[in-house]
Design a protein that fits this description.
Order of helices and strands: EEEHHEEHEEEHEHEHHEHEEEHEHEHEH
Low-confidence stretches: 1-33
Number of strands: 17
Largest sheet: 6 strands, parallel
Strand content: 15-25%
Number of helices: 12
Distance between the termini: 14 Å
Length: 354
């Protein structure tokens, strides 16, 4: 049982600045607000230009506008402190804990945050999984930005976990269908949920898709152009090509048999999962393509991937399954941050949300 909200004068300690170089998953680094190492259960993916701290500042700035939080200024004495608890209102996988700490630190480095769960851990409806203590004004100013990130990331991680479990032994990937400006955040959530990252952007993998093939005059021409470009520019990089028919798969294999030094490493099998009128899917074409490729290249199934179909696709023998829905159709996980926890629980029980 939790007591009513307690407010007290804030300590006289002055806010201080903290900066840390956070190691990214592939060795690339970025300057961010300080995150204790214990919170980095899953490191953010690498990106050479992405400014995570800048994204946090932009989110806070769009909320503050040119006046700041006028409601907090009017109602919350600057010298008061409070304690607020994170409350899960539904079951899922929590994500964004490390990012939340960065946001709180950006708003007020004197805030003290304690977590009872780590990124990637399951939470259930009614669980209090973290708390923050310090200036009440700072807590409330940071609240919505923290929750916006955490709810989105937790929603992505929750769906990713379910898809990754169902897809086994195939591995689940997201795509570039992420929210503009949130590419790294969305892909970080996929990692937290147990998925793997596809290419981060246009710069870290060659991916020959249908439009490239059309402009180049065919798959063989596109592959040859890529191999030539990479060799001339002394670039070593993974190459994937999209195929939509078994004839295209065979054309790719024929090109590779002639061009032994090709950089091709993965073949996408696009829309070879055929939906049926009864809600099931036919994966016979996909299996046939996998058998023809016979382990010479990684394979990736794409198209008609849902939580209901991913298990059957995963049994086809493909290496990877990519799903844009992981990030473009995310359902946020319901999480709140409450100072008066007793009242929050009372209301939650009334509305069946805790």
């Amino acid at each position: 049982m939790y007591s009513a909200v307690t407010l007290a004068p804030v300590s006289s300690a002055k806010p201080f600045s903290r900066r840390l170089i956070v190691e990214m998953s592939t060795g690339v680094t970025t300057t961010t607000a300080a995150i204790p190492n214990r919170l980095l259960a899953v490191k953010p993916p690498a990106h050479p230009t992405y400014d995570l701290k800048g994204v946090i500042r932009l989110a806070l700035a769009e909320d503050a506008g040119d006046r700041g939080d006028v409601t907090c200024k009017a109602t919350i004495p600057s010298e008061m402190e409070a304690e607020a608890y994170f409350l899960a209102k539904e079951d899922g996988i929590v994500a964004g804990i490390a990012l939340a700490e960065m946001i709180f630190t950006e708003v007020d480095p004197s805030l003290k945050i304690e977590w009872f769960r780590n990124d990637g851990d399951p939470v259930f409806k009614g669980l209090q999984f973290g708390k923050v203590r310090g200036r009440a004004y700072s807590i409330v100013v940071a609240e919505r930005v923290v929750l916006n990130f955490m709810q989105r990331m937790s929603g992505i991680a929750t769906l990713t976990k379910a898809m990754a479990d169902a897809a086994h032994p195939a591995r689940i990937l997201e795509t570039r269908k992420t929210a503009p400006g949130l590419r790294l955040v969305d892909k970080w959530a996929v990692l937290i949920g147990g998925g793997q990252n596809h290419r981060m952007g246009l710069f870290d993998m060659v991916m020959i898709k249908d439009n490239h093939i059309s402009v180049a005059g065919g798959i063989s021409n596109a592959l040859k152009a890529v191999d030539t470009y990479l060799e001339q520019n002394n670039i070593q990089m993974a190459v994937e090509v999209e195929t939509r028919t078994l004839d295209e798969v065979n054309e790719v294999l024929e090109y590779a048999s002639i061009n032994k030094k090709t950089s091709l490493s993965r073949i996408m099998l696009d829309n070879m999962v055929v939906p049926l009128s009864n809600g099931d899917v036919d994966v016979s074409m996909l299996k046939q393509a996998v058998e023809v490729i016979d382990g010479r290249f990684e394979t990736e199934a794409s198209g008609n991937v849902t939580l209901e179909t991913v298990n059957k696709i995963g049994q086809s023998g493909v290496t990877f399954i990519s799903s844009g829905a992981l990030t473009h159709s995310v359902k946020a996980l319901d999480i709140s941050l409450k100072i008066d926890m007793a009242l929050a629980l009372e209301v939650g029980r009334r509305t069946k949300r805790v």
